[in-house]
Amino acid sequence: MKFPSIYQLWLALVKVGNRFTFPLLYALLATICGLLITAEYKDLQSTSLLTKGVYLGNLGLTLSLAFALFSESRGVSASRKIAGNIFIVFLLATIGFLTNPFRREADILVLVILAFAFHLLVAVSAFSSSKENNGFWQINKNFFLRFATAALYSAVLFAGLSIALFSIQTLFSINWEGQIYFRLWIIIVGLFNTLFFLSGITSPIQQLNADTSYPKGLKIFTQYVLIPLASIYLLILLAYEIKIALAWELPNGSVSVLILGYAVFGILSLLLVHPLRNDDDSKWVKLFSKWFYFLMVPLLVLLILAVYKRVDNYGITESRYILIGLAIWLSFITGYFIIKGQEQIRIIPISLMFIALITTFGPWGISYVSKTSQQNRLGEILKEKSLPKRNNEIRNLVTYLNNKHGISSLQQFVTPDLKAIDEEFQAKADTASKFDNSYLLKWQARDTVLSMMKISKAYEPEDLGINSDVVKYFYNLEEDIIDVAGADKIIAFNSNMSHQDKKTRSFNIGKDNFVLSVDTANKIHLKSNTNVTLVFDTRTLLSNLLKVNSYKVRNDNNENSYDVPANVMTIKKETDLYRFVCRLEQINGGPESGDRKHLQKALYYSGYLIIYKK
């Protein structure tokens, strides 16, 4: 007896397999490697190879899919198909040889950019001619809808099977391995999701160029969801631009993310409604399409200023390089569509793919430019006088260069040969039994370079101007136990008040109004409407505490933490009408650094001001 549904499923599977053989093989490679990673591994080297299998499988999937679609639409011969797929294997092997994300974290971003570029290649591979605009739009509409549907089906399937596995575990007392759900997710995403997506690609593909249908649901989604969201972004950004223009100041660096968000929503909306842009029945779409790129011009100015501000302060890193690249691309696209019109929408993925590809290699590439920029910063900072802020910047830059580009990127700053040190640490990392151990070795490599530069690996609290090695912590022996007999008012305070929105405490005793505040010089101020002005100097109290070595060490695993009698933690003052008791519950601090080490500074203090009326 035949089951039609199973039989039809098998036929569909065979059809997809024959049509997209190589994409499915790459998906299978990535899935198998992903499953093996979840098993117990012996060393980092094995995990590194399996991880390469995952990302090369994903890159191969998109590359071979793009080539398959191109071959089908252009009628490429079988021999050229074989040659093309051999070239893809060679290209993937080259990428695998040149990249090592476990040693150089910057390679992770390079691989992400390559994956993004190859996805864009899929978008333009089937219909690359300027005369095939409709086919280009139709196939990418199908990609968009099929991807959304595949994601929904995969999520439902994963949820359903996970519940089934959990039910079996609960009802039959079967102990599944903890990784079983992750492995299930890998199989569904790697195989089911891929098969489902590929099975929905129209065949024969050339018929899409004559298809003029437009899904009503897509029109509603774009017209009433995406375009309104993009419009909200636009209003916010234009209002912000007016604000900074009136204030005549540079924009906040984070505004670049909002501008890119608006550009993404806007361009995606324009692509989805492209066939309706001249439709008189869709006036809102027509208006948005007409003015979108013109309204991008002032936002591009804002974006360029925001990027300049971020780069000017800290040089170029990978994230800032991407911002620069996107700003250049967005400027090109805006100018192109304003001048040429919006007929050739293929220019969007083609130009973005070109930008993405050229940023992955060469002396203009993301890794080289970012590394060189931060090396130059480190070289300049090393010339400065040794101060906590300078030393912390050096630590940050050494950490960045070591993690992102490998220890060899620091060779120009030290005399010993780092190649041998790199090989030694890499050999240890390859045989490390845990990821944590490999990262620990990476930190040890960083500390080795810091010691060569005669920089301590411990960070110094630069903004506090205090030597962290001699900070002491004093606590009131009667902490939070207060005798309130006879007190008219008790006001809590702490040193952080000077940095908070509400910097003062106002209160009344009878008809007298008081305002309590703290400053950054370790002083507590009390003023009243009766011209009472008092200052409680915690610096003097801290100085007295630091002179005594007989206080009991507090039982909290910190040898520099002490319990102090309540009377020692108290500052008393009087006026004609009131008696004030400033009682500290805790105070932390020590000698200042540099030339002011004879002075004391509190890092933090808290306590109560107790007021008695005479």
TrEMBL record:
This protein's UniProt keywords: Membrane, Transmembrane, Transmembrane helix
Regions crossing the membrane: 20-41, 53-70, 82-101, 108-127, 147-168, 180-201, 221-240, 252-271, 291-308, 320-339, 345-369
Top-level taxon: Bacteria
UniProt-listed InterPro entries: DUF4153
Protein name per UniProt: DUF4153 domain-containing protein
Native source species: Pseudopedobacter saltans (strain ATCC 51119 / DSM 12145 / JCM 21818 / CCUG 39354 / LMG 10337 / NBRC 100064 / NCIMB 13643) (Pedobacter saltans)
